[in-house]
């Protein structure tokens, strides 16, 4: 397995992983109708192309034998917590989970930001992801917890901070 920066040609696969992982990870957490409506379409692919092309974001992918297994998207923090880096998305294909893909993405991201502190949010009821982030050094920062609103429905999010190494 290797991690590299995403290229425009990767946008469609990233969109597919995003949709598939949301439908798998958030089943029973987020409204099923919303999850079932998520599709890989031109709009979603175009969004990923813009993110990949952005000089303000970094998108890393982990691939094995040429197959993209997962991705991480990060950039400047959106919140004013005194932490300047934020991971906004880290998703691994369900079939590739528990094989070190996510850990490799975090490790490479840490190297990319010179081991500076960063944070990310995880849905409170996404226990598998919470366990993964704790295993990879994330510490809950309750003071930064917030709610995410999707189609008028609120979902509690937990903030994990990863300290400098």
Q: Which characteristics define this entry?
A:
165 residues, alpha+beta, Aminopeptidase, eight-stranded mixed β-sheet, 5 helices, 8 strands
Précis, in short:
This protein is of the alpha+beta class and 165 residues long.
Structural class call reads alpha+beta
The named CATH superfamily of the domain at 2-116 = Gcn5-related N-acetyltransferase (GNAT)
Question: What is the rounded Rg?
Answer: 15 Å
The CATH topology of the domain at 2-116 is what? Aminopeptidase
Helicity, as a percent range: 25-40%
Please give the count of helices: 5
Contiguous uncertain segments of 5+ residues: none
Shape: globular
3D structure, described in words:
By secondary structure, this protein is of the alpha+beta class. The protein has a domain at 2-116: Gcn5-related N-acetyltransferase (GNAT) (Aminopeptidase). Helix content is 33%, strand content 32%. Strands 1, 2, 3, 4, 5, 6, 7 and 8 form an 8-stranded mixed β-sheet that branches. α1 packs across α3. The longest helix has 15 residues, at 11-25. The chain is globular. The mean pLDDT is 96.
